[in-house]
Design a protein that fits this description.
Layout lengths: L9 H12 L29 E2 L15 H11 L13 E8 H4 L3 H8 L3 E9 L5 E9 L8 E3 L5 E5 L8 E4 L7 E3 L8 E5 L4 E4 L11 E2 L24 E11 L2
Antiparallel strand pairs: 1-2, 2-12, 3-4, 3-12, 4-6, 5-8, 6-7, 9-10, 10-11
InterPro entries: TLDc_dom
Protein name: TLDc domain-containing protein
Organism: Diversispora epigaea
């Protein structure tokens, strides 16, 4: 305590000594209540918000599933280009809306985080293979569809992207516009995620984790009238689990 004697008022110093020796005795100095220090809560680094992927391209990977070449291909498909865009002429930016490994793999999370988002691409990596599958929805995801509804559009598509041993990408556009997608009602959203066509690209999980049970599939009916998209995007109709999946929103560059 001695070093503080030079900077404290004499009366305050005497009171400090008195209090240290006889805490029960009153002091003459005015003692103010202890200060209350508030620490404003800073935003968490894990705050779930969209991230502009092209801002990250120069320094780090923007996706756990797709790369820049895939972005070029997907952008070209959205605009129905007969020739593929070059890397320097991509007219879109991607914003990451959801990543399973970041936000969790529950079907309910998909409906909560994608609700109200339009112009989105879903991409997933199949466990144990090089397959990258996905679908494009130009419309707004709606988690309040009463009773469940088929959604009409002529612009949606499903796909498989070339990757590793997968040498060629497959694009399959909707052919039955009235049944392009199905939006489940809230009672089903704990189990059922996205649904394109007639089970032609869908995600489901009875244990609320897309990585654990094999309830994702790309089915194909034997009768073309039962199929709402042009072609099958997998060589098998076996169900599968996923390693990771992401939802990106397309934003036209200004």
């Amino acid at each position: 305590m001695k070093p503080y004697k030079k900077i404290l008022d004499k009366q305050l110093w005497d009171d400090v000594i008195l209090h240290s020796m006889s805490p029960e005795k009153p002091v003459k100095s005015i003692v103010l209540p202890a200060r209350t220090i508030t620490n404003p809560k800073l935003p968490s680094s894990s705050t779930k918000r969209p991230i502009s992927t092209f801002e990250l391209l120069s320094s780090s990977p923007f996706s756990t599933v797709i790369n820049r070449e895939h972005v070029v291909e997907l952008s070209s498909w959205i605009d129905r280009k007969s020739t593929t865009y070059s890397l320097s002429s991509i007219p879109y930016e991607f914003q990451l809306i959801l990543r399973g490994s970041r936000d969790d793999f529950r079907p309910k999370t998909f409906w909560e985080m994608c609700n109200g988002r339009a112009g989105t691409i879903v991409v997933l990596k199949v466990s144990g293979t090089d397959e990258i599958l996905g679908g494009y929805n130009p419309l707004t995801w709606d988690n309040k569809a009463g009773g469940g509804d088929f959604i009409e559009t002529n612009s949606s598509f499903i796909f498989s992207l070339k990757n590793g041993k997968i040498e060629n990408s497959i694009l399959s556009r909707v052919v039955d516009n009235d049944r392009a997608l199905y939006y489940y009602d809230s009672n089903c959203q704990n189990v059922l995620g996205l649904y394109f066509g007639n089970c032609e690209f869908m995600m489901e999980s009875n244990i609320s984790d897309f990585t654990q049970d094999k309830l994702r599939w790309c089915d194909r009916g034997s009768d073309d009238n039962d199929n709402y998209y042009e072609k099958q995007i997998r060589s098998t109709t076996e169900k599968f689990s996923i390693k990771d999946y992401e939802v990106f929103k397309f934003i036209k560059k200004q």
